[in-house]
Amino acid sequence: MTLHLKRIGIETSGENIAFLSARCPDYSPESFHSLYRVRISGGGREIMCTLNIVESNGMMGDDCLGLTSGAFATLGLPEGTPVTLQLAPPPKSLDSVRRKISGAALDAGEIGEIVADIASHRYSKMEISAFLVACAAFMTTDEVLSLTRAMAGVGTTLTWDAPQVMDKHCIGGIPGNRTSMIVVPIVAAHGLPIPKTSSRAITSPAGTADTMEVLANVDVDIDRMKQVVGETNGCLVWGGRVNLSPADDIMITVERPLGIDTPEQMVASILSKKLSAGSTHLLIDMPVGPSAKVRSESQAARLRKLFEYIGTSLGLVIDIIVTDGSQPVGRGIGPALEARDVMAVLRNEEGAPPDLRERALTLAGRVLEFDPALRGGDGIVAARKLLENGEALAAMNRIIAAQGPAPQSIDIGRLVHEVTAPAAGEVSAIDCYRVARIARLAGAPTSKGAGIDLMKKTGDSVKRGEPLYRIHAALETDLTFATEMATQDHGFRID
Prior knowledge:
Mean pLDDT: 93
Number of helices: 17
Largest sheet: 6 strands, mixed, barrel
Oligomer: single chain
């Protein structure tokens, strides 16, 4: 009994979904209920999916099996290909998940089986949620180490013909903190390889990949990525294309809606990606502030020790720097606005955001300190020289040219609303989380020209009616949503 494959143009954030007609002549709906896990086979390939039953006859034919966009691309077969359908037996590793729910500590073998099954889409989102919530309750350091190794062990592992491979990562939570796009060209200009794979935004107004895509193509495969690094010493590409730690990508789609972001899972997520990327030396930027991910020095100290233990156990040379997370970095929040700030810094423009410039130089200097040819303390001096003499800009231009042109030309959102100060005084605090939410409501990062342009920062004096920031949007509805949220609470505290 065969069905004919059909692509259904629905994006489901990494979850593989299949659709079967309720009137299918060969497969009884009584045997295949909605939300069952099924195995779809055809053309020498197979995929695991969650099944949905379609009652309307307008979506597809009764003899068709529909797959969402991501599932269809993963299976890699043309429309119309004959496929078969069968119920998928529950993964044996679910027994280990039940043990974890009961409070047991899992060994490396059990965690490895769970991760392999998640990467193979054998788990439903409900089952992934059960595992993540159980891990959020408690994890030993040995479990974190096993989880990191297991996540790095599935998917692609990159290798590089270099004794030292640099990398830099920020744990996130601070809008506008687009330092990687300045650090990478500085390090590349110095002559150290720094193949930077970055994520797209999930809950923030922009990820590094979203912002770099304003300037260049980021959707490159492994061979092209290696070619770019060989030509320029660096790259800034989307990690999803090169399939690094795919189990982590799947788990993130469940963690974020649930609000799960424990130190243990954060460390496993970040370091598994770096291990898969072939990095040998890693700098971690850890912003600390009242509305950042890490909100106190004690939390930072605990997270730092966990990073150091797991990183060292994996053979990484790791350095952690605690930075100011009390307010957004730079002026722009949103891909096009952040790309504008980055290029202003690299071009040494007079109006370039000084906080973004100095933070990027500090981080780049720490990465350059990994170079044994530099004396201690010389890193930031070398970084500043490479920026000021234009070599960093030249390196960035080479990277952009090697990765290829951006998919489309992006302009900053033409619809504008200025949020003004309700009273005179001094800006004493900015809520990073609040302004990031407003920028997202304005359309960022989906609309790359949308976001927020900051006019004032902490410590600045303001007059009544003076603009605090400008909201940019491409659609009237987005501007309305963002403006309404800013009216309720603009995120600035003025004393």
